[in-house]
Every structure is written in C-alpha cells, then in structure tokens.
Amino acid sequence: MSWPACVATSSGPTGFGPLLFPGRVREAALVSRELGFDGLEISLRSPAELGRRELEDLLNETGLRLAALSSGRAYLQDGLSLTDPEEAGRARAVQRIVELAEYAASFGVPLIIGLVRGKAPADGDLEAAVARFVESMRECVDRTVAAGGRFVIEAINRYETPLLNTAAETVAAVERLGSPRAAVLLDAFHMNIEEVSLGAAIRATGAHLGHFHLVDSNRQAAGMGHVDFAEVAAALHDIHYEGWISAEILPLPDERAAAAQARRFAATMNETPVTASE
After folding, report:
1. Which of 51, 112, 237, 264 has its CA 20 to 30 A from that of 12?
2. Is 278 marked active-site?
3. Angle at 109 between CA 137 and CA 32, to 5 degrees
4. How many domains in the chain?
5. Is the separation of the CB atoms in 118 and 84 below 8 Å?
6. What is the CATH number of the domain that holds 44?
7. Which of 17, 19, 21 is nearest to 33 (CA)?
C-alpha cells in the first residue's frame, strides 16, 4: 500500500508558521510537481481568495490533485469560531465553513476543521464548548449534503486549544456527529505531544481516519525530529489507510529544502516494508 503525498500551502499570506509558500500557490504547485508530489493541501480564508477556475487551471497545468482545503485562517484572521458562546458568532462561523466546504466539494475533497473550533471558553466549561462544536458541525454537515460536503476534524495539542486534543476525543466528537461525511485528521506533531503511542492512537482511530499530516516532533519535515515513523507507517498499514499524507511543516531551513525533505521521506514511507501488528 502506498499513500499520495502533498504539500500544505496557503492561498494568502498568513501568520500560521507550518505552511510552505504561503500566498504563492502557483509556486507551491510548480515546486511540488518538480519534486514529485501528487497534490496540494490549501489553506483558504474564504472562497473569494482563490477562484475555482484559477485553481482548476493550475491543477490541470501541473497534473497535481487537490488533497484538501483547510479552514484555520477563518479563525486566525477573522476570529470566527464554531464554539463562540454567542449564537450570532457561531452563525457567522458556520456560514463561512459552509461556503468553504462547498468550494472543497466542487473538487471532491474534504474541508479540514482545525483551529476554527475555537480555543478556551471564557467560562471554562469545556464540555459545553464541545457540545456547541458538535451542534455547529452538525449544521455544517446538514447544509452541505446536497453539494457533497465532507469534513476532517483535526486533533490539536493542548497548547493551541483545550478542545479535542487527542485522537480518542476527536473520534468521540465525530461519532457524536453520526455522519459518514465527517472523519478525523491526525497530525504526528500534535500526536507526539498528546498520545502515549502514536501507533496505538492510529489503530484506535481506524476507519475514522480521513487525512494524515506527516510532520515531525519539531514541526519540521518528517525525518528532522524524533518521531518513530516506522511505527506510524505500520499502524497506517494496519488500518488499511488509503488517504493522503500531507506535509504541513515549517519552512526550515528554507521552503524548497523543507519540501524536498518531505518528499524524500514520503517516498521512504511508501517503500519501507512494514509488518502489520497482530
């Protein structure tokens, strides 16, 4: 089994560090094609930022595929949150997510739900915040069914948000949603902080896993830190994962070198024989 590999970039400038060629999607695509990647994951603030025809033409020109769109900049730059304690605030966040999910669906790919979940609620009631998140996501799912909307919800470490830090917590939220249109995104950087065993967490996520970020313990390209990716590869094989491995990584030592390292390591992941656990 082998996995298609992509680079995570952004259609506009962003203060979010682990993206390559932010605001330069064309450059990201050209370098990705040159290095042998299969596609792109693009962080999109709103559908107005990158026209569908423009993206279609770029993908056709380079022979790349779109792996996923990411919604985090709706939170980072516009402050939208699916757990906003104010109903009007949640409504604005839901509307943006619906727009982004429909854009993603037009390319047949999922929308990543990461930091747009929000951070710590002012009242400290995490259980209520998760309930608001599930309610908001249910509305997003329902409103995008006709368009074919799909979502992958990312488990994010405790230093960035207290909501849905572990694989198990994220799986539980997806199961509460109860829709085949929602899955889990696991990221090795976040998992290195939160999980006792990356392999065990991947196996426990199982069929819920819809997208995977291949990134090392220091948020650099895989192979530049101390994550045991042999364990990761074995677990992905064990659950028969067939999705993307995406390099959402810091541009160190520079963007091109980081992309090249990520591509070399992705090839190693696909070529290294692994034995499924019993």
Report:
1. 264
2. no
3. 130
4. 1
5. yes
6. 3.20.20.150
7. 21
Give dist(CA 124, CA 139) in Å, integer.
24
Catalytic residue among 41, 194, 248, 255: 248
Q: Which of 154, 194, 195, 255 is catalytic?
A: 154
Q: Give how far the C-alpha of residue 130 lies from the chain's centroid of Cα atoms, to the nearest Å.
A: 19
| Inter-residue contact 149 to 104 (CB < 8 Å) | yes
Q: Which domain holds residue 70?
A: 5-271
Residue 142 lies in a domain: yes
Closest CA to 54 of 31, 33, 25: 25
Residues of the chain with pLDDT > 70, as a percent, come to 97
Count, residues in the chain: 278
Q: Catalytic site residue 154?
A: yes
Does 278 reside within a domain?
no
Omega of the bond leading into 253 within 30 degrees of 0 (cis): yes
Does 277 reside within a domain?
Answer: no
Query: Could you give the CA distance from residue 254 to residue 257 in angstroms, rounded to a whole number?
Result: 5
**C-alpha of 133 from chain center:** 17
With respect to residue 276, please indicate whether it lies within any of the assigned structural domains. no
Q: How large is the greatest C-alpha to C-alpha distance in the chain, in angstroms?
A: 52
76-87 pLDDT, tens digit per residue, is 999 999 999 999
Q: pLDDT category, 276, cuts 50, 70, 90?
A: very low
Instruction: Write out the H or E segment, with its range, that includes residue 209.
Output: strand 209-213
